Structures are given as C-alpha cells and as structure tokens.
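> example.struct
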C-alpha cells in the first residue's frame, strides 16, 4: 500500500487501522475549542507527526492519520480531508484553506480490478511556506515546491515548482513569485 503497489482495501488489518483513526477523529472533531491541549494530544495520537505551533481546525477527515507528517507553524482551516493511504508530508509554515483535499488513493482503470476492490496510492509532498487556497484538490503523486501558491478551487494533477502561482483545473502556473517582492 505505502509502496504504491495494488492492495485490497477491504483487508481486515487495514480495517482495524481505519477504525482506530475514526475513533480519534471523532474525539478530535468534538473536543471543544476551549481545550486546545486535548486537541493537540489527540492530533499527536492520530497523526504520524505534528510540528510545534501547528493547528488544524476541525472537522478533519483522514484514512489512517499515521501517514501524515506536518511541520512546524502550519495551519489548516476547517474541513481538511487528507486521505493518507500513502504518505502525506506537509512542510513548515504551510497555510491550508477551508475544504482542501489531499488525495493519495488511486484506482485501476481496468474495470475487473476495480470490481475486485484493488486500489493503490502515491504520496503527496507539500513543501515549506506553501499556501493552498480554499477548495484546492491535490491528487496522488504530486509534489508542490516551496513558497508556491495554489489558487482556490484548483485541481493539482502534477508537480508544481517552487515560487509560482498556479490556478485552474488542471492547475497551471500563471506567474513566478520573486521572494521579497510582494
């Protein structure tokens, strides 16, 4: 699964990991905002890593959680969906708008393989100081370079280099960012 190979999604061992994540998500998503310590403890149990000063506003939805690693001082607004069948790496100082989707799962084009419940996944990497606008979707196998801005509603289907603004479906680079020049 983590290596990108086909796997059966209904595997009982995977189902147990999904249930564990579901329990932690429910607890996290229903913990009052006035108890940030408990929220952080739950995120630390759910995720592979959560950096110092990082915040995720509930609701949060994940598959396993344990394959998600978030750097320091990153922020995700309401409604993040991070399907982590493969690793999702989020760098330091990343800003994630509302209702962003990070989607590592893939499905075979072959109808017989899909009917048999075979799936695969590819990792997602969001480098440091990236801003993902509200409603952006990042698909399996994508790496987004440092300082890049992804516009609201964009669908990122392939890698984006550092220091660019990308918009649209599929996301395309519309300009280069010169750090220190607004």
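> example.seq
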């Amino acid at each position: 699964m983590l290596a990108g190979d086909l796997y059966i999604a209904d595997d009982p061992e995977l189902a147990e990991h999904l249930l564990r994540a579901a329990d932690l998500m429910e607890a996290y998503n229903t913990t009052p905002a006035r108890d940030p310590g408990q929220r952080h403890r739950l995120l630390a149990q759910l995720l592979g890593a959560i950096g110092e000063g990082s915040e995720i506003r509930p609701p949060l939805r994940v598959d396993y959680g344990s394959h998600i690693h978030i750097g320091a001082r990153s922020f995700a607004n309401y409604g993040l969906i991070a399907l982590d069948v493969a690793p999702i790496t989020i760098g330091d100082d990343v800003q994630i708008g509302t209702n962003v989707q990070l989607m590592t799962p893939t499905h075979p084009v072959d109808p017989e393989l899909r009917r048999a419940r075979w799936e695969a996944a590819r990792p997602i990497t969001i480098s440091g100081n990236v801003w993902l606008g509200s409603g952006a979707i990042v698909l399996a196998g994508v790496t987004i370079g440092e300082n890049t801005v992804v516009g609201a509603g964009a669908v990122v289907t392939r890698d984006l280099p550092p220091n660019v603004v990308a918009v649209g479906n599929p996301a395309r680079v519309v300009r280069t960012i010169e750090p220190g020049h607004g």
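> remarks
The first helix runs from residue 12 to 30.
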